[in-house]
Amino acid sequence: MMIETAGALGLSGTQVRDALSTAGMAPSLHNSQPWRFRTTPDAIELHADRDRQLRVADPDGRELRIACGAALFTLRLALLGAGIRPLVSILPDRDRPDLIASVRRSGDRPAGPRMLQLLDAVPRRRTNRNPFADVEVSTVARYELRRAAVEEGAWLDLVTDPETRWELSDLARRAHEKQVADPAFAAELEAWTGHTADRPDGVPAWAGGPLPPPNSTWVLRDFSGGTAPGDRVYEDEPLIAVLSVHGEGPREEIRAGEALQRVLLTATVHGLAVSFLSQLIEVPEARDRMRRLISGSRPPQVVLRIGHGWPVAATPRRPVEDVLGSDDGPDRP
């Protein structure tokens, strides 16, 4: 594998491996890590790994492309940290639809202080499924979170209106109930979460977090395989944020992933904890209703629960050897 990566973008094999390892710390649905990389002397290619698409929760591959976008932003950060200005081409080959991006070198560029802060936050970022403290997110942090989305061509709506929050929580509950009533969804969830075996992907039981009481305002999934303690009190008023982009389609979903990772790393810099309310995106009628509630025209891509939490351990990641592709043929349609 060292031979495959040697010399890419003028970096050593070790430097490229470090960059790919950093990119692999991006978030993904159920920690599925649905990406692979291919390196050439002139480029690093990021491909969607369709074998890791969650076909029930994510039949259209929207969340897969968002995850790949998050990995792409993290790769950009890693290259900036190595002094390289990345030149990114999104979906560069219509004959290879799962080639998410090709990243080339566009000269030298040292990372600025803000980007170095975000790069430093990559290994510290976590999805925190535990209760948060009832402490308000500061005005400064809220501004920086919205700024992070805008800098990647997206928008972050902070849902503060009480009536809208109530409607959103009711939507989340109904979407959750619909999903868990589907045997195929339940089987897929079980396959990717709540495990105790030593594996490099998925959500281990210990990372699932406790379950809130049945009457909790914000319904949370059980990632523990049924082992989580129940009736734990969660915060009353988490900051709920909806990330949206300006259009539909794969290109915009990749953009949403880049913006998502920038928002999550900005939250980490500010000492904030974040988890996802994915059922609001995955159930079509809930997503459509949320779009009308929040933005009207912009399609929502991710819903976040943000607050002040206690530290949690990192979930496992696949080694670089597992995400380096070796075939040069076209992607599967």
Which class do the helix and strand fractions yield?
A: alpha+beta
SS elements, strand count: 10
What proportion strand? 15-25%
Provide the gyration radius in Å: 19 Å
Write the layout of secondary structure elements.
Blueprint: H1 2-5, H2 13-23, E1 35-39, E2 43-48, H3 62-81, E3 84-90, E4 99-108, H4 113-121, H5 139-151, E5 155-159, H6 162-180, H7 183-192, E6 193-195, E7 203-204, E8 239-244, H8 250-269, E9 273-276, H9 279-282, H10 284-294, E10 300-307, H11 320-323
Parallel strand pairs: 6-7
Antiparallel strand pairs: 1-2, 2-4, 3-4, 5-8, 8-10, 9-10
What can be said about this structure in brief?
It contains 11 helices and 10 strands.
List keywords for this structure.
333 residues; alpha+beta; 4-stranded antiparallel β-sheet; 10 strands; 17% strand; disordered C terminus
Care to describe what's here?
The protein has 333 residues and is an alpha+beta fold. It has helices at 2-5, 13-23, 62-81, 113-121, 139-151, 162-180, 183-192, 250-269, 279-282, 284-294, 320-323, and strands at residues 35-39, 43-48, 84-90, 99-108, 155-159, 193-195, 203-204, 239-244, 273-276, 300-307. The two termini are 27 Å apart.
